[in-house]
Amino acid sequence: MTEPHAFRRAAEAKDLDLMREALAEDVVLHSPILFKGFEGRDTALFVLGHVIEVFEDFRYLDEVHGDGTVVLRFAARIEGKFEIEGIDYLTLDGAGRVTDLTVFVRPLKAVNAFNEQMSARLRAAPPA
């Protein structure tokens, strides 16, 4: 069995310092709620910090390694009532740091609840 990727360990621990180490400086985060990606490690960490607060009972269910990629399947709850599941698709650089993170989530009702919470948070304090 392969050791869990550093991004997974950081997300499960809700450890933004460890997550910083797992992300490349020029990482791009593709969110399910916005068309344009969030560019740069500091911006991605700002957004992911809010995601950590919105997701309840966050857990990874599976991890698959490819050639320069990692796919992480997760589940969580939102507002104590909406079950959400999704995939973090990671593209890695030669050192194993995440250069591209694309998040896919379902079902629609949970995605809408996630969108409402994240939109309110990002409007209140937009990323730099």
Model description:
By secondary structure, the protein is α+β, with helices and mostly antiparallel strands. The protein has one domain (6-124): Roll (Nuclear Transport Factor 2, Chain: A). 36% of the residues lie in helices and 39% in strands. It has four helices and six strands. Strands 2-1-6-5-4-3 form a six-stranded mixed β-sheet. Strand 5 and strand 6 (98-106) form a beta hairpin. Helix 1 packs antiparallel against helix 2 and helix 3 (41-54) packs across helix 4. The longest helix has 17 residues, at 108-124. It is globular, with a radius of gyration of 14 Å. The protein starts with 5 loop residues before the first helix and ends with a helix. The relative contact order is 0.20. The mean pLDDT is 91.
Total domains: 1
User: Approximately how much beta-strand content do the residues carry?
Assistant: 35-45%
CATH topology: Nuclear Transport Factor 2, Chain: A
Named at the architecture level, the CATH assignment is Roll
What's the total count of β strands?
6
N-to-C SSE series? HHEEHEEEEH
CATH structural class? Alpha Beta
Secondary-structure-derived class: alpha+beta
Largest sheet: 6 strands, mixed
* Unreliable stretches covering 5 or more consecutive residues: none
Question: What does the average pLDDT come to?
Answer: 91
Query: What is the C-alpha radius of gyration, as a whole number of Å?
Result: 14 Å
Helix content: 25-40%
Shape: globular
N- to C-terminal distance: 39 Å
